[in-house]
Amino acid sequence: MTPTQNLNPETQNFHLSAIDVTRQFDPPSGPWVLQQASLEASAGETIAIVGPSGSGKSTLLNIIGSLDSATSGSVRLDTIDITSLSPNDAATYRSKNVGFVFQDHHLLPQLTGLENVLLPSLAIQSRDRKVAYQRASDLLERVGVSSRARAFPAELSGGERQRLAIARALINSPQLLLCDEPTGNLDHDNALKVVDLFVELARRQGIIVIMVTHNLELAARFDKCLRLHEGRLQSVGGTSSDPALRGGEEET
Amino acid sequence: MTRWRFVFRSLCHYWRTHAFIVLGIAVATAVITGSLLVGDSMAASLRESVLQRLGSIQHVLLTPHYFPSSLASRLTDQPALKGKNKSAAAILTQGAARCADRELAISKVSVLGVDDHYWQLFPGAMPPPQAPAAAAINQALADDLHLKPGMDILVSVDRSGMVSNDVLFAKRRRDETLTVLRLQISAIIPDAHGGNFGLQAGSTPPRNLFIPREELAESLNQPGMANVVLLGKSKSPAWQCGAWGDADIASIQSALASCATLPDYGLKLVQSNAGHYLSLESSALLFNNAQFAATQQAAAETHATATTASVYLATRIQHGNTSEIAYAVIATLPESLRPEFTLQCASPPFPPGVILNSWAAEDLKAKRGDELTLTYLIPTPAGEYRDATIRLTIAGIIALSGPAADQHLTPDLNGLTDAKRIEEWKLPFPVDHNRITARDEEYWDKYGPTPKLFVAPETMQKIWSRASSEGSDTALRGGEAAPSDWITSIHITPPKNISLANFEKQLIPALLNHLTPEKNQMLFRPIREQLLASATGSTDFASLFLAMSFFLVFAAVALAGTLMRLLVEQRASEVGLMLASGWRRRAITSLLLHEGALLAIIGTILGLPAGILYHIAILKTLNHWWMQPWAGGAGTQILTVHITPQSLAFGALSGLLLGILCMIWGVRSLSRISLLRLISGRQSLTLIPTTNQAQGLGGGQSLGSLAEHVFKSSTTAFLFALLALAFLLASAAHIIPPEIGFFCSGTAILLAMLLAASSLLSTAIRRKREVASLLALAIRNAAASRRRSLLTIGLLACASFILVAVAANRRDYSHLDTSDKHSGSGGFTLTATSAVPLHYDLATPQGRKLLGFSPQEEKAFTNVTVFALPECPGDDTSCLNLAKPTHPRLLGITHEFAQWQGFSVNTPWQKLFTDPDTHQPDIIPAFADADSLQWILKLPLGGTYQFDAPDGSPIKLKIIATLPGSIFASELLISDANLKKIYPKLNGATRFLFALPKNTSEQALADALRTALADQGIEVRTTREILNSYISVQNVYLSIFLSLGGLGLLLGTAGMIAVIARSVLERRGELALMAAAGFKRATLIHLITLEHLALLAAGLFSGTAAALLAVAPVLTSGHADVQWHQLAATLATVAVSGIIVCIISAKTAIARNPMQALHEE
Questions:
Q1: Which of A91, A115, A132 sits opposite B582 (nearest CB)?
Q2: Helix segments in B538-629, DSSP class H
Q3: Starting from the edge strand earliest in sequence, which strands make up the sheet with B944-948, in order?
Q4: Does B383 touch chain A (CB under 8 A)?
Q5: What's the complex ipTM?
Q6: Which residue from A156, B77, B945, B984 has the fewest beta carbons nearer than 10 Å?
Q7: How far is residue B381's CA from residue B378's CA, in Å, rounded to a whole number?
Q8: Are the C-beta atoms of residues B941 and B935 closer than 8 Å to each other?
Q9: Residue B496 — pLDDT band, cuts 50, 70, 90?
Q10: Is domain A44-68+87-242 in CATH 3.20.20.300, yes or no?
Q11: What's this model's pTM, rounded to 2 decimal places?
């Protein structure tokens, strides 16, 4: 399998594994952010990563999404060794297999909601425009903002903007949805709606959703919750079986 | 959604920034295109003007003597030219014109005597209506004198004839040398129909007056004659663009030689039956060496003998104390009498011999062996005739019969030989009729101008040379008299047994064979080819305006590039998101470049019409200037709009290329921002480099990063400062031209200043000192957005650089102390030129009296030093002439003028009278105005300027000294002797300089000159006026430069407004926070204003300092006339308007309550 291949999450059973991932900033004397962090995930699984600020949550997410490179260790999505990809292959890998949702929605102010959703599809030259348009419309429907398709970001509320950002992340049918504190700018109700949407998407489309968050209540809604502590991932346990997680936010 | 849609959406969304980018590119395109079009229009206008002046004329023959007008038709009847050419004989002479009923007058009018053939040379032209005493004029002359058909005009023309001014028989009296014609204007000839005929290319339209040729010829005492042949192609489909080649000149000259007759060369043969010889006479009275040599060759070829003959007029022949003859013609002893009489030329103390005819011997009661005293007149330049005497011994007495009674010994002399009685003589010198006796009249009645005395050729030569040497000191003659310069006729004695009539038939072809047109200064000039070459201009205006626009283009491109860069930085998070979505960096860069390219295209498209308008505006400015009377304009536009596709394409391509390059420069910053930083939306380019980046530089990162680092370094600023110093020193030492020195040092200093500013800004943010005041906070803020701040500083620096440089180069001579000998005026307050040569010396009271100055007018000359200089007409070598000079105007410097020691010149004036190079004796030393030499003739000091003399021989002038900013910018200065060598037919002075003592009224002198010399077309100007007219060309360019500076300032202001608006927009959260912390809105406005005022001050200081340093060579040269108060006012205006813009922009930007922004955040 090559990075240019598109794993269809609805037909395939794929697997993500990050093994002993380390990351040191400004080597050789810089700080170690990740030290032998490992995780495994299968199609349709949702994972929440929690941890204090500066613990390396976003760095791990960036390494899995090929936006950053690990100092050592390996990250694989089925047969794709993400850590060894060239910049161009990494771009292809991202365009076909990864969707990102950030705390700041990063919607392009000059594009309408629908056009923002379609933006990643332009990265794939061979993509059928009609198919992409149909999928974008479906996604807008699914995330509940189809009525605002023609609106510009400045005309949308914070929740609507983030839903658009989720739809945009899904436009190329990725296997991995990497969410970096996607609810950070949302109120509680909207945050819950968004997280539930992630869980639903994972169930329905069989994609792996990894979300970095400070909010333990939200994390508890995911299949698995991992805590990043001193560079290592520790399992907090299944969300339904950990009453501590359901108790509220770990940090505010 | 497609990529193009994305691009379109982005273009619309960021339209404000894009508008400024488009403005920058449009300005750059407009300025480049406009400059190129100015060059095109200049060249095309000059070319158009040449084609208009010449009609279908291809070649011209302009001779210093008159020839029969039939030459034109004889020429086109020659097989080589028949059917192919049209020709017209004409008279072309200079004159002065004035309104008959008003004060308006104009000197230097071309008076043309033409016939119907002339009008046929101009397609579509019709001859003006013919009427007695009527004339047609061209539009320029009509405009100058406000003339309309039906009005009268007075025209004075010179009719002094061909006899040189220093010859006794030369006409000098005003009534004899000048004719004033009163003519009624019959028509105003359109420019395109022959009205603008002229033999010089240039921006000054000729002032032409057309009279029927024969009428003018009669007025000039030259009936049936002409001095010009115009030759054009008879079939003229291609005449508009083509010109003949050299081969045609050869065939025309050959045809001319074939059809020429002796009268065409100003010669005639007279049969003398009494002496049995043919006498060859010249209309110029004296022969030149070439004519003499050719005649000798022709005589030898026909087995004849050629002998020289000469006559003079004695005013008194005295024998002892009692007997004398009042006036008598003396001649060289004819060849036919030489076997009988021998005259030994004895050296002093023994007087040379003389032979008297019996009539004179009887009158003088003289016999062989007696001594006579012969008195004769020598003309002086002042107009006086000085007596000279020579003692002679009577070697014999000859009977008044046979060869001794030959009236043809005396050539035809107008006013003498045609008089029936001595009383009727019309001679230029005074004749004392009281001394003429009845017996004298009886002799004249019987024998006419038959000589009474015969002397040896050597004696006659001595008499002539004394007369000549008298003039040589005063520039009229100059140099050594040519060996033939005393011969008044050449006697050709045929071999025995051949009649004179038959011999004449043999001699004429032989003479014509040797007397070629070239030897008689009859050379056809390929006038069309020459003028078209001249019309290419002395200045490459496209380059000039491009150079002048350099800093503006730089500013415009910098604005566009930096704004693009800022925009890309602003859109960092957008780019980061796209990268995270799988876009490749190259694809995003390509997308942004597409945007940039579209902006460049829009900018170019808008820039092209703007460029056309800009070029039209420049042409209007230049036209306005050239329409001024003192610039030679006639109120008509000489420059017309010519737009060539090539220039449009080149301008568009240049603008597009520059636009795309600055877009690439703006977008390439993307490659240096890490992906994670982009995603985070932190566009850290403007902030201090991180440790990581700094380490990366040492680790061999991209060249771009290295360049960025180097650019920031203060060391580079120092290196640029050193480079600027090197350019300044090289310019001061004349190693590089001053203009190159100015541009290079200016650019280097500006860059050094910007680098220093960049370094200071970096230091300000690195130092991390406590921010203790609002100003410190403002400076820290400015430093935080270093690139933006540099953009503002750079734009303002460019604009102020231009303004200061312009002010420093501006000059004004209105208050020049013209009595300062070492100034550009040379110590002269007034200068005058006459349309026709003055035949008396204006520098002496006697000369002025003869010129007609009244005693009252003479008072204006009290203590005034006057110099009269001969001048040959030619092309103006100053910047007032747009065309390239091919035959420069030459001014003859006299010894007296050299002794004046005027002007600031390092080489002694006497050097003009010595050979500059002993190895090359044909090289003539010359002085030239420094600016004319550099900009128009494009020669270095010591360079040699070459052109053709009227006889076709090459003239080489070596420039041995330059006069900085002088009144002699329009001509080259050589010695009067050398001038006479080049132009032997030059007769009299036409240029006059007046040095007035302080507190003397220049107006009184000017009025006296204008009144007394009105008919001679005197034009009096102050030297201040002349210097200002030259400098006004420079000032008009500087004004354009100033406008460009103003435009630059506008760009700078636009950039500053954009920067302020952007800065406030970006920092609204920060400002809101400050508002929340208790800062008042006024304080925030104060903060923003202070921040940008600091940038304004830095920009103005950088530009001003850079400009002052770049123009330091000019300032220290001593010739600069900087209006410091004006400069200070300009800078103050810039500063004040900048402050106002800052305050208004800050107020507008923080118009809303900052807390509202905080809520939005």
A1: A91
A2: 541-548, 550-570, 572-580, 585-626
A3: B871-872, B890-893, B972-975, B923-929, B954-963, B944-948
A4: no
A5: 0.78
A6: B77
A7: 10
A8: no
A9: confident
A10: no
A11: 0.75
